[in-house]
């Protein structure tokens, strides 16, 4: 808890079930580390490199996670109310994660697996979700203004009361997708 690990190197380290609440990990290198079931509540990981990291089941709620999570395994994580704006989550596995009320504006989620995630009240404005798997995801009250969902899989997703101003759904896959109480007049690719 409360550790100051700025710019520290934890590459390929086993940090399973560690309590890193309120820790400073800014600029740290955690590539391919095992942080499964770790508590990172209120932690600051700005500009950290967490590519390939295993964070399954971890609690990172209320953390500042503006970092690189390229190819990270974050399945089942709790990411509620986190700041992940501008972060890289390309091909990250976020299956079943709880990401409600988070800030993912300008995030790169290209080809990320967000199946079954709760993205309620999440800011995904300007996010790149091209090719992302959003099967069964809940996007209730979310902000997808200017987001790119080109080629995304939205089968079984629930999109209710969501902002969709200039959102691109070109070549997106829909099937048993619920879209309700959304203004679709400026949506791209639903023709």
Description of the molecule:
By secondary structure, the chain is low in regular secondary structure. Helices cover 0% and strands 5% of the residues. It is built from no helices and 3 strands. It has a 3-stranded parallel sheet, with no helix packed on it. The model has no long low-confidence stretch (mean pLDDT 97).
Descriptors:
little secondary structure, 3-stranded parallel sheet, 191 residues, 3 strands
What global shape is seen? elongated
Q: How many strands, what sense, and barrel or not for the largest sheet?
A: 3 strands, parallel
Average residue pLDDT: 97
Would you tell me the structural class of the helices and strands? little secondary structure
Care to count the β-strands?
A: 3
Strand order, largest beta sheet? 1-2-3
Task: Name the beta content range.
Answer: under 5%
Give the topology.
Layout: E1 138-140, E2 158-160, E3 178-180
Parallel strand pairs: 1-2, 2-3
Write a short abstract of this structure.
This protein is largely without helices or strands.
């Amino acid at each position: 808890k409360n550790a100051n690990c700025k710019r520290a190197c934890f590459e390929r380290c086993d940090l399973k079930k560690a309590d890193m609440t309120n820790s400073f990990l800014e600029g740290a290198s955690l590539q391919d580390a095992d942080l499964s079931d770790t508590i990172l509540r209120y932690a600051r990981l700005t500009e950290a490199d967490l590519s390939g990291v295993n964070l399954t089941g971890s609690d990172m709620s209320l953390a500042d996670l503006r970092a690189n999570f390229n190819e990270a395994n974050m399945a089942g994580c709790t990411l509620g109310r986190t700041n992940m704006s501008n972060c890289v989550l390309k091909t990250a596995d976020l299956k079943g994660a709880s990401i409600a009320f988070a800030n993912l504006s300008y995030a790169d989620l290209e080809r990320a697996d967000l199946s079954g995630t709760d993205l309620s009240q999440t800011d995904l404005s300007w996010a790149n979700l091209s090719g992302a798997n959003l099967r069964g995801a809940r996007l209730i009250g979310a902000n997808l203004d200017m987001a790119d969902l080109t080629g995304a899989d939205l089968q079984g997703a629930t999109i209710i009361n969501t902002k969709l101003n200039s959102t691109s759904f070109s070549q997106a896959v829909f099937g048993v997708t619920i879209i309700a109480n959304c203004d679709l007049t400026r949506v791209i690719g639903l023709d």
